[in-house]
Amino acid sequence: MSDIILDKSEILRYLGHKGRTVRGDIMNMIDSCVDDILKTARYRYIYKIFDIKIGFQNGESCIELLGTNIRLTGNDIYEHLRDCKKCVLMAATLGIEADNMIRVAQNTDMLRAVVLDACAADFIEKVCDLAQNEIKQKAEEEGFGTNFRFSPGYGDFSLANQRSLLNLLDAERKIGLTLTDTSLMIPGKSVTAIIGFAKNYSAPVKKSGCDICSMRDRCKFRKAGSTCGRN
Q1: How far apart are CA 45 and CA 62, in angstroms?
Q2: Beta strands in the chain (DSSP E)
Q3: Which of 17, 28, 81, 229 is deepest in the core (most CB within 10 A)?
Q4: What is the pLDDT of residues 74-110, one digit of tens each?
Q5: Tens digits of residue pLDDT in 132-154
């Protein structure tokens, strides 16, 4: 059993709940799915800290990860890290076990599969929060503050960056996280992100998650007048 506690109100939000009374059978299914995914998923996370500096590529500013050949390009990742001295690359996953459980349910009970997927969505966010809290502690030990998680696919920070970031983390060997040819992660319930370290950091006014999200034009939460709550 995981030591992470899932939030049923968040799970209901992922399911599109709008404050209406929830039927008892649905709440029972949520309870069952929470219990099953906590028992089955094998969450893991890794991260690595890099010194960074502003570089240039094709005449445009970019972020260099020192000690590597990686340069992060795009206005949004530049804005995210421009005032930082270091950054952290992180990756988290629920493991293939969670994917398999949802896939089996899709063949036998689609409603249960949808609820399991919502549980998994909350679970991976909680894992990322766990990793970020650990990262924040390490930053504070070095006299830094941290900003928020910023992932490939946000704004103009291309998903094509996934492969180089996972290679830097040695994510396949360490946590079993790989990519398809189209840069989709396997296991599916996985997240990669970049967090900046800055001296005397105070959170800037930033774009909302919807403004920078690559899913904004086809997001089920936006269509329902809500948000997924990330960042």
Answers
A1: 27
A2: 44-57, 60-65, 71-73, 86-93, 145-146, 178-179, 185-186, 190-198
A3: 81
A4: 999 999 999 999 999 999 999 999 999 999 999 999 9
A5: 999 999 999 999 999 999 999 99
